[in-house]
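Whiteboard transcription, Tuesday session. T.W. wrote the structure tokens on the left side:
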């Protein structure tokens, strides 16, 4: 199952991905987290050691060839993961999109293509859950970065500009082959916030998979450079993220546990 997560900048995509990836791994899934942001920070939100992150190489664009059905990997997926994945807490493997190396070097199509190619090959691994943390720009939809995702989760904050970003990305996603497009509300502080997102989803016929409450703990965790899961394991935001992840990803079948 390949889950891509998008939304306006600051909506909570990385917070969701970092926490959901680790919770899914704890629930017995094999999880590959992909940082699809050219300003990468998923490793920090997951609690990967900063020195290990600095040493690891992001996905090289040389791994991709363009084919009629889109970009594909030129090396076996296992090899790519072995060479480029970082070990993150709870057994999650994390790979990161290439970042610009120099000013004025041009567009980042190839970096997006590398992520698309990895996601394509993860389709042949039905027992692996991929969690793709996308960047704020809707470019991932115009470039097809997440074209092989099975579901796209749009993180919405209860204010107009965030909802506008969700509306735009949902309409672009409707033109893709992504089967399920759903919305999760984040940073809800009041019933008015909850109602605003409920109404928005109803008006635009969008599936709403849950509400994530406002959390002071996640801000404290960020300030301390700790993942929320380690900083405040009982925070209600964690339960909300677990519930949303559980609605999007089928539980592990008993015979798969420990395999
Ligand atoms: N439910 C929440 N309550 C309060 N702050 C939150 C919540 N979710 C995320 N944040 C904070 O919002 C900021 C942006 O979150 P982040 O996950 O990095 O967003 P994105 O990846 O969408 O840009 C961070 O400081 C994060 O701690
Ligand atoms: Mg982010």
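and on the right, the sequence the group agreed on:
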């Amino acid at each position: 199952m390949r889950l891509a997560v998008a939304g306006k900048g600051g909506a909570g995509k990385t917070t969701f991905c970092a926490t959901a990836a680790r919770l899914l791994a704890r629930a017995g899934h094999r999880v590959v987290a992909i940082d699809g942001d050219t300003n990468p920070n998923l490793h920090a939100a997951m609690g990967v050691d900063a020195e290990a992150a600095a040493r690891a190489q992001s996905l090289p664009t040389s791994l991709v060839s363009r084919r009629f059905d889109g970009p594909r990997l030129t090396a076996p997926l296992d090899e790519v993961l072995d060479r480029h994945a970082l070990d993150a807490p709870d057994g999650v493997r994390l790979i990161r999109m290439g970042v610009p190396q120099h000013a004025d070097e041009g567009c980042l199509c190839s970096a997006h293509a590398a992520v698309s190619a990895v996601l394509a090959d993860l389709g042949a691994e039905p027992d692996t859950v991929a969690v793709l943390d996308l960047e704020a720009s809707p470019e991932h939809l115009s470039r097809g970065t997440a074209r092989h995702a099975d579901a796209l989760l749009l993180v919405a904050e209860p204010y107009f500009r965030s909802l506008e970003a969700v509306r735009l990305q949902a309409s672009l996603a409707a033109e893709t082959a992504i089967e399920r497009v759903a919305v999760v509300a984040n940073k809800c502080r009041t019933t008015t916030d909850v109602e605003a997102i409920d109404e928005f989803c109803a008006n635009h016929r969008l599936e709403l998979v849950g509400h994530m409450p406002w959390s002071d703990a996640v801000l404290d965790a960020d300030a301390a450079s700790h993942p929320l899961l380690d900083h405040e394991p009982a925070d209600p935001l964690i339960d909300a993220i677990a519930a949303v992840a559980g609605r999007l990803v089928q539980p592990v079948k008993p015979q798969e546990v420990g395999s």
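Someone added at the bottom: The chain has a mean pLDDT of 92.
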